[in-house]
Structure of WSCD1 protein:
Amino acid sequence: MAKAFFRLQKLLRRTQFLLFFLTAAYLMAGSLLLLQRSRLVIQQGWRGPPASQTLLGPGEMSRAGLAEPGSLQSPGPRLLGRLGALQEPAPDPRHGPRWLTARNSELRQLRRRWFHRVTSDQEPLQTAGSKAMKHTAEHKGTYMGCFTHDSRERTLKGAVFYDLRKMTVAHCQEACAERAYSYAGLAYGAECYCGNTLPAAAAKPEECNLECKGQKGSVCGGVNRLSVYGVEELRAAARRRRNVIYRGCFRAPENLTDTFPASLIQPNLTVEMCSEFCSQKEFPLAVIRGQECYCGYPTGRFSLREGADGLRCRTRSAAGGHYCLVYQTPVQDTRCTDRKFLTTKSKVFVALSSFPGAGNTWARHLIEHATGYYTGSYYFDGALYNKGFKGEKDHWRSRRTICVKTHESGKTEIEMFDSAILLIRNPYKSLMAEFNRKYAGHLGYATDHNWKSKEWPDFVNSYASWWASHVLEWLKYGKRLLVVHYEDLKRSLIPKLREMVEFLNVTATEDRLLCVENNRDGNFKRSGAKQKNFEPFTQEMKDLINRYILTVDEALRGRNFSGLPREYVPR
């Protein structure tokens, strides 16, 4: 018996030692992973090189994969005449484009891990046999019931909003009321739809069973189901907050009744009366000629591209029918808001490439609304996904999106794409936009403290070379390119957008393009109200950036593209 007990004790000691060893190994492995993760997070939050490190200069570009200005064709007098002789920046390959590419590769791995940890769609809160959720959350609208919802043929045909993190019933109701709609409907826990006509097909109350993403205990529709609320009570309060935007004075079309689908003749007609009437009819334009009010959309017959002198609308010729006043109602133009993934995988893998801060998100908004297809992303940006860019969550190599956003500029990453739209923006504007985004998000502004600290010079020294290397590397390794200048896209939206859509091998109708023009800003445009009372760029910064502008201009001309727009230099 004693012998058997001794053997058991010996076995237990070995097992105890083995468990201790495995536990220690597990803790060590976990510590190593945590340290590596912390290193990547620290790198992501990097604000610039130490003061002892300087930027790779244009004179050393050839050793970092960049073309020397003298090795390219002449940029033409418009840039050379204004740049003059500028001093060479001090060379240091540690902060040139290759260093940034290597750093981006590390950050890319971190972003991939974030992607796989994104919160999955929320499970229904109840089973079919359980009690339906009460609609007693904090809101003022009247609950109308649960209705069927088809995303391809929407029952509430007005404005559409997405917020996959913070959607609440009250938020949806207020958004619809401010845009003069009578009903607000919520689906999938995160989607808000507005309209003036109650859906016809009712559903079982228990089928609206998804909790709102931003409000626990409150129901926001279901799968193909709408929780609909009446917001008539909120419209009166929201009326004083509504924006009726004056679009200008325009020459009236020959036959207004054929051009506009709804009209009203009212003695003592006011702008508010006409706007309210057109909002009820769910039209984005209110057109006034004398005592006549017309409602409709921008069309080929009335495109709003050529305005007239405002004085003409105040003379007798306006009353005689030659000119009319045009106002933008709170109603959203919905002719181009429907989007979907490609039904079959794209045969051509297209990149939408740009330097950060060059307007990539805005270009994606335009492309999605013009084509009707989602755009993808090489990264995952939760803020964009939560506001309706559903392609953010799709794997970037799925080929289910019309094109893929990327800021990468390495040879391997470039050659993975069959073609690319290369979006270029003035580096001065790009650097400021990206600096604002890093410190205040997509819509905010960096503080004066940020601009006046050492972080801003370090940022310029690091990112200015990346602006140049990004263009040069895509010109060198890109297989088929369409170069689009941000400034040209702003000035000539429809012609440039049509060119981009044709490059993507998609046909967009004229009405859809006009709808895009009517919704051109999207949800990620800074207000522009915050103006700095100081010049953020020192002369040394300007000399550095102008050198890179010259290099990029020569490279573009060397590939038979038009050079950079005139306003790029000098500052």
